[in-house]
Amino acid sequence: MSFELSPEHEEFRRSVREFAEAEIAPHADRWDKEHHFPVDVVRKMGDLGLFGLTAPEEYGGSAGMDDSAGDFTGLCLAIEEIGRVDQSMGITLEAAVGLGINPILTYGSEEQRKTWLPDLVAGRTLAGFGLTEPGAGSDAGATRTRAEAADGEWVVNGSKQFITNSGSSITSLVTVTARTGTRDNGKAELSTIIIPSGTPGFIVEPAYNKMGWHASDTHPLTFHDVRVPEANLLGERGRGYAQFLATLDDGRVAIAALAVGCIQACLDMSVRYAGERTTFGVPIGSKQGLAFQIADLEVMLQASRVLTYRAAALKDAGRPMREFKQAAAVAKLYATESAVTATRIATQVFGGYGFVEESPVARFYRDAKVLEIGEGTSEVQRMLIARGLGLPVE
Predict the structure, then answer these.
(1) Which of 25, 243, 275, 356 has its CA 20 to 30 A from that of 394?
(2) Which among 106, 73, 14 has a CA at the least distance from the CA of 257?
(3) Which of the following is catalytic: 58, 236, 375, 394?
(4) What cofactors does this protein use (predicted)?
């Protein structure tokens, strides 16, 4: 299988890079300092078609169109290029498509798709994906949020945490996993319910004061006797667990693409600074100790990029889920851990300047750590990879 990008993908990459450098890069530091979520830029991203890359034309997307970069690989390219200048806006795009649009596109009824997708695909609205809870993260089977059927409605009670794009001024809905019963084997039956923003009893709690991703919208959520129609069930009842596992497989590759953008930024900044900064009358890049570290960044970048776009190519080619699942876990694990290392190296290259907030290196350093945690921790990825090798790991 060839992983060389098509001319359409290369042209698309250039257009996204130009947009990111013109519309995002000049403001990223200010947004970070002010913890500002730039709705106007999100809408411009929608105008560029970035939210519709995996959605078909009938819902306003570009997937499957001739001479288009509208596929999963195109989405990863967009996330990488946005993430190269601002990880917060990169995760906004990743979560909006991977966790907001794709579950409705994949599992929603035609009525649900027609109701929600046009605005989501256009970037006029955003959607969140409510999976994680205070006591249920990697162990999603421990979900305590409940949805009970009563008089043609679902009555939802519970809470979620760390939910991206869940409380912005343009958030239109959150899909939540909830217990809807108990199986014969005694385990929880999990289903997914669409809860529109503004529904009585749906409380968006104050935003987190996060270490990084300051310009990303992230909130805990509370549901107190929230009532929505039974028709808001997303997909088949009792299939919520399988649905979110498949959703996270796609998301892992997209997070890997965000990590690639982070590594690229670290490499670019380090090469530039090492050529400009002088000590003892020569550029610091002439010192082997530093030059070799920057060379390691290039190795990490190339390896992460190949792993990421190989996984994306498997997805676009419709290869067997088992093959894609393994490739997604490998890409996510390697690229995200490399990104964290890359920010440490870049900070070392910048020395004292890397330790002050005026340097973008500091922002990337703070933003990188969560890449090893979100959409499956590094430990979960190693577990999945080991299982894929046939090991009976628990």
Answers:
(1) 243
(2) 73
(3) 375
(4) FAD
Q: What is the DSSP string of 294-328?
A: HHHHHHHHHHHHHHHHHHHHHHHTT--HHHHHHHH
Provide the token pair at 224.
């107190």
Q: Which amino acid is at 64?
A: G
Active site residue 375: yes
Which structure tokens are listed for 179? 């217990």
Distance (Å, whole) CA 50 – CA 330:
25
Whole-number pLDDT of residue 98: 96
Do residues 40 and 94 lie in contact, with contact meaning Cβ atoms separated by under 8 Å?
no
Looking at the whole model, is its pTM more than 0.85? yes
Q: Write out pLDDT tens, residues 129-138.
A: 999 998 877 7
For 233-273, how does the pLDDT look when each residue is reduced to its tens digit (9 = 90+)? 999 999 998 898 899 999 999 999 999 999 999 999 999 99
Residue pair 366/211 in contact (Cβ under 8 Å)? The answer is yes
Q: β-strand 126-130 against 171-182: which pairing, if any?
A: parallel
Task: Please report, to the nearest 10 degrees, the dihedral formed by the alpha carbons of residues 43, 49, 53, 58 taken in order.
Answer: 100
